[in-house]
Each structure stands twice: as C-alpha cells, then as structure tokens.
Amino acid sequence: MEAICRMIRERGMIPGLSTHMPETIVYADETGLDVETYISIYNSMGFLMQVEVDWVAHIIRNAHKPVLTIKPMAAGQLRPFQALTFVWNTIRPQDMVAVGTMSPKEAAEVIEISYRVKGFHHRSSGNPIQGWRQGVRSDLTARPCAGARVGR
Fold first, then answer.
1. CA torsion, points 88, 120, 143, 20, in degrees to nearest 10?
2. What is the value of pTM for the model shown?
3. How far apart (Å, rounded) are the C-alpha atoms in residues 117 and 89?
4. Is 42 within 8 Å of 49 (Cβ atoms)?
5. Least packed by Cβ within 10 Å: which of 55, 62, 119, 132?
6. Are 134 and 123 in contact (CB under 8 A)?
7. Domain assignment of residue 127, yes or no
8. Crossing angle for the helix pair 128-135 and 104-118, to the nearest 10 degrees
9. In this predicted model, what pLDDT tens digit does every residue of 21-63 receive, in sequence order?
C-alpha cells in the first residue's frame, strides 16, 4: 500500500482508502498509512457492514483521518430522513456522508433533509442545491483525489 500511496502523491493526487472492512481503518491508523481520508459503509441497519453498527461507529469516532461514509440509506432500505438523521448525528464534524441519487431532484431532497437534520438554513430561495453551492467555501482548492480500495 505504501508504494501505491507514493505513486498517487507523485502524480499530484491525494491518496484515500476505501474499504468495506472497517478494521482496515484501525490498521491504517496504527501503521501510519499515508492517506488523507477513509471511505467506509455506515448505516443504522448494518447493511453490507461486516461488523456491528456500534463497532463501526466507534471506529469512525476514533479514526485519525476524516471518514467519508457511504450507503447511509442501505441501498434504499431506509427512508432518507431516518438514515440521514442517524448518520449526521453519529459522525464527527470532519466526517462526510455520500448518498447516491438518480436525479437532481433526488439530490435536492437529500440536501434539504441534511440541512434540516443539521439545523442549517440554506441561503437560496427554495433551491437547496443552489444554497449548498453558495455555502461552499471559496478558499478551498479542488484537487484530484485517488483512493485505494481494500476488501470486496
């Protein structure tokens, strides 16, 4: 993995680690793997998670790097409000949530629910996607990101 991370950095990208095995995050932290973020499945149902939800929550809370959580709605088995309320209320401020959507309308609904769960009010006139764009910090520089995936 060290060689892969080095190659990614040599190409001007940021290495990340995507895994379906949450214990990989613990191992990466303990060994000092040169990655900037982790990607892990996390939902209240335990869907596609190889260990119990409370253990994954513990791993995320104690990760040395930010964690991008995926599959919060358990592939449609959880309703958006339930799923997002659980995830947003059990991750740290530096962690993130990724949700798959099929249309801009679905994306807008997920953003609106997330705003409500987090207690934010978007700045636009009824368009959560525009409000989200306005809320993005302008001092952030977009950089390409590459991730190494471990597990299935």
1. 10
2. 0.78
3. 8
4. yes
5. 119
6. yes
7. no
8. 60
9. 999 999 999 999 999 999 999 999 999 999 999 999 999 999 9
CA 50 to chain centre: 17
Using alpha carbons, select from 78, 98, 97, 99 the residue that is nearest to residue 89.
Answer: 97
Q: Is residue 115 part of a domain?
A: no
Supply the range of the domain harboring residue 57: 2-103+145-150
DSSP-derived secondary structure for 125-149: SS-HHHHHHHHS-TTPPP--EEEEE
Q: 120, 107 in Cβ contact below 8 A?
A: no
CA pair distance 9, 29, nearest whole angstrom = 18
E strand or H helix at 109: helix 104-118
Structure tokens at 103: 């249309």
